[in-house]
Structure formats: C-alpha cells, structure tokens
Amino acid sequence: MSDSSSAYSLDQIERWMQSVITHPRGVHAGVNSSPSRQQIDVSTDQIDEVILPGPAQSPLERLAVYGNAYYARLLGVLRELFPALSHALGEDLFSAFAFDYLQRYPSQSYTLGRLADCFVRFLEETRPTAPPPEADAAGPMPVSWPDFIIDLARLEWTIDEVFDAPGVENEPLLDPSHLARIPAARWPEARLVPVVCLRLLSFKYPVNDYYTEFRQGKAPPLPEPRTTFAALLRRDYIVRRFELSAAQHELLSALVDGETLGNAVMRCARHDDDVERLSSQLQAWFRLWAAEGFFQSVHVSTDCSLEGEL
Q1: What residues make up the domain containing 112?
Q2: What is the value of pTM for the model shown?
Q3: Do residues 12 and 58 make contact, with C-beta atoms less than 8 angstroms apart?
C-alpha cells in the first residue's frame, strides 16, 4: 500500500479491491467502474495513491495478479461442476464458454455453490456452435449439436443441485408393502407423494448414458440425437439416476404435479395405447420406484380403514 492509502479505512480498501479484481472486464475497467470509485475515487492514472508499484510490476499489474487468480478459481469451480461437459468440449473450449458465461452472469453470491445457477440458461441463450476437438474425426456435426451441450450441462447441474438440496435422509419413506393395503377400487383416487429431492428430466440426446460412461473412466464418443428421459434423487447422500421411458416420465410427472393415480395413468396411456400391457407394467414400476425411495407417502380420501395416509 502507498502512504496515501492511509487516508482510507481498511474496509474501504478491501471493498475497493474486491470491486476492482472481480470486474468482468478486467482490473483496468474495474478501477474506473462506478462501484469502485464510490469506495475510493481514483482513476488508473492515480492508482499509485492506493497501490504501490512492485520491483518489476506496476500497480495495475499487481492487481491483475489477483484478478487473474480470481477468474482462474471460478473457471476451476465450473470445471469441477461440469466434468463431463469439460471432457466433451475439451478444456480450452470449455474454458472459453465458461469465461463468456462469467462475463454475462458475474458471480453475485458469497458462496461458490451458486456460481453455476445460470449456466444452463446461458447456454440456451447463446447456443454455442463451436465444434468440439473431435468433430473433424467424427464428420459433420448435427445441426442440433448445441442441444447436446445444453442437455449434458443440465444433467450435471441437476446432479449437483440434488446433492445440495433438501433430502429425506433419516425420514420414513413409503413402504412398498403399504401399496398392497390399498383396495383396487381405491387406487384411482390415491395420490402418491414424491420425495422432495426427486427431479425428472427430458433430453434430446442420450446424455445420461454419456455421463455414465464418462464416470466409468471411458472416453465416450459424441452420441447421435435421441430423445431420452431420466429421474434423479438422493438417497443416503448419494445422487442416483434412473433411465425412464416416455410413458414412465409422463406418469411420474403427473404424480409430481399432484395428480391422482387415475389421472396420472390416463396421461401415461397417451404414450402407450396397449392398455393391457400398460396395466401389467404399472405394478412392477411402482414396486421398483417405491423400493428405490421415489415416494414419501401415499394419500387416499379419508377412510378409517386406510387412515387417510399410509
């Protein structure tokens, strides 16, 4: 610090430095920005009033060290949150997308846990078309290739969100045996209550398979477009992923929306007009989902024999 800096309080200098080194257009723009000058009103020509030059660096160059380190840290966090996407794009291309994101959506939170909240939105808004490193070897990329980037980012962000969100550890879940206690005539009016950490996703690419292969240490090729569906939830502090069919996704979506089981099955039937086959599958689906912890409880209309909730 310079002798002149003693005219400023420590709080002023800390807030000024934070504003300067976190500015999305660099420390030069940061010094001249309105928030910085509200703390300490100096221009880049007067910066030595606050920061002394070093043996080999000007005051701005010294600040740039902190600014570069700040953005390097943010880029590192994004790579940790989106490892499969970073692999698919290559480190340089991913870093370019991530840096552009930080310019449009600068970090505003005290915690890095919120850093990626707008990353999927950013990809949807910009629909980056730069090809991945392996594109030349793979041949022409599909026109919808940006959807693969968006889908993969959405999957990885949801995995992180489910891991940090409220869960149902140490809470009682629906016992599969309770389902058998509901008379067949009452099933249509029953409401299954999903666990709070259940998330349902639909994709234009098979990104769940891609992510699984990546986690297994493989180098999966870029997949062809294919509509896929998945359910995610957290159990015992582990995020679990389940591949779904279109009919299963529709059925679970209806239950998440609060529909009765009868209405949910009607929505599901739009994807499978073979009623007999669907009926035989439903029992197996619900046994599996209940065993995997998809549901907190089941509610039926007030009835003393069913106690209203199981």
Answers
A1: 3-116
A2: 0.84
A3: no
